[in-house]
Prior knowledge:
Structural class: alpha/beta
Amino acid sequence: MARASVRSLLWGAPLWLLACSGDVRLGDYPPSSCDLAEPPADVRDATFSIATFWSSDDHEDRALRTLTDRIDRRRYFVSFDDMTTRIEAQRHINDAFVTKRLPDVFQVNGGNDVLRWVEGHDSASTDVCSLDRLRDEHDWNRAYFSTALAPLTCRGHLYGLPVGIHHLNVLFYNRKLFTELQQHAQAQGTPLRDLSELQSPHELVAELAAVAQLAAKTADGADVIPLALGAGSEWPLTVVAFENVLLGLGHDAYETLWQGGLENDDGSRAAELRASLEEMVSVLRELTGFSNVSQPVSWQDALRQVGSGQALMTVTGDWGWAQLDDSTVADVDTVTFPGTQGAFVYTPDSFAVPRELRKDGSSARSFLHEVVESRAALIDFARLKHSIPPRRDLEPDEIDSLGNDALRSTYQRFLECNRDTAGAGCKLLLAVSGLGPPPGTDHCFDEIDAILTLAVTGVSPVEDAVDDESPPRLCTEPFPHTKDEAAARLLQLLLRIGEQRFAADCR
């Protein structure tokens, strides 16, 4: 989910018509990138191009370079198409199909970022290439977690290869600062509860209120921020809203909303979902009352504020660990977001291969098989990206080599969740980016991040972002002007989303 007021997708003829002409099918000639051919023995100075949105963060960019540095530079010259957001990457690929200037591989989140390009077509005419031959040849079904491959699979065909798995319903806190605050609160006769004991978002709000009452100061005399939130861009607040607060409120609202739970509703489930969404907005407003959202803080800075003790907590995915340096990481710990203890919300970072004529796909094959599939490469990547490897066949010494307790415990938890076939102790849930409407499905849907920001903080990012270089809004509905107008519009859009399953024929 992300704003499309400044980045909108172009739609016209079906993209498979642009990517394939006539009756060309996989294996026909002229060749297609979907041939995924063996590289010639004497390949020299070939270009390998990759489209990525990790370049906007130094830590994520370094993680990507651990992969591309493994490419044989005697054979390939590596070029990057750098974007700043997942939305921009999706738009870039859409435009590239039109201009016929496609990368060899492009970065995606598992789910609808991939399935949007394949639903409604057989595997020989999809916009992205089936990886079935590589999957079967290298036994990926055995080597990888099934839940890592499932969001990239449609009707039994695999269309992407995961490189890492992130955990999203995570609350970070400064352990050292929290201990000091507990001692202070105990002396005042109002003890703080251990964060692992909190059972709901409402209990988290109460804890933050108790922290605020302490009026604690940092070493330099500034007020301690109870909750740092990276509201400098829109998507971090969306993660807090859906993968954490809404899920933590229960009532199966998360699944009802993002898995088409209102498709055949008689009105009763819609009423229940509406009540949960109204509660979500109310809780978010309370949370931001203890935060620094009035300042343009990035999600990276929010993590660093927690690490330095300027702030007590923040909420984000486990990618946040990468923002903590050696001097602060020992003071930070995490707990599962209150109310979501029985769930593991995840997203598989992945790569897909776009279908393009007059290519044989050999460079994409080399990258996927020789680099992305490599257990050693995945472990090196995990250490920097702080995502766990998507392979379930890691040896004990390889798990130990992940580098820190947080990664090892997350890997073991995901392993346990995949083994928990009864579903009693752990429920695996795909993140919103994999379940929600793909960018461009509806231009008004694409504004949900911006509307949520206004509904919660009172800041209108669409109006603030407009300048001479910004393209016009494509949603024909007026953008709301007040927090309450935004909240009403948000609920209207979300209830419409709950009435459909996106990429339904792939689910």
